[in-house]
Amino acid sequence: MRQEHYDSIKNMLDRWAECMSVGGAVGEGARRECLGAPDARIHSIEDIEVEVDKLIVRAVDSAVWELPVLQRTAVLSHYGLNTFNAWRADFEVVFDLAIESLFGSLKSRIVC
């Protein structure tokens, strides 16, 4: 994987972790309007950015929970989101593998 892709996935994970750590609402359910339809709540560029960030966080959250257990645990531990104390000496290696897996999963969902 190229360094730019690694950095892109890492940045998405950083935004996801920030949202998760402050209790961000990811599970707002299915959108009522079809994809691409204008949203009545959007009144500015900033509103569009917020909506895009929500979509990215939802996609990353889904992809993280689709990871194999060990990779998911490494990601959650890396960001301090683990609810139990699990640690392995090779978590950094497993975290890098998780980023590669996330790239494979997310490249078809969002632009990486």
Description:
There is one protein chain. By secondary structure, the protein is mainly alpha-helical. The chain has one domain (3-20, 46-106). Helices cover 60% and strands 0% of the residues. The chain is built from four helices and no strands. The protein has helices spanning 3-21, 45-66, 69-78, 91-106. Helix 3 crosses helix 4. The radius of gyration is 15 Å and the shape is globular. It starts with a helix and ends in a 6-residue tail after the last helix.
Number of strands: 0
Structural class: mainly alpha
Write down the secondary-structure element order. HHHH
Describe the biggest sheet?
A: none
Q: What percentage of amino acids are in beta strands?
A: under 5%
Q: Kindly, what is the distance between the CA atoms of the first and last residues, rounded to a whole number of angstroms?
A: 12 Å
The share of residues in helices is 55-70%
| Rounded radius of gyration (Å) | 15 Å
Could you say how many structural domains there are in total?
1
Inertia-based shape: globular
Q: What number is the mean pLDDT?
A: 79
Number of helical runs?
A: 4
Stretches where pLDDT falls below 50 for ≥5 residues?
27-37
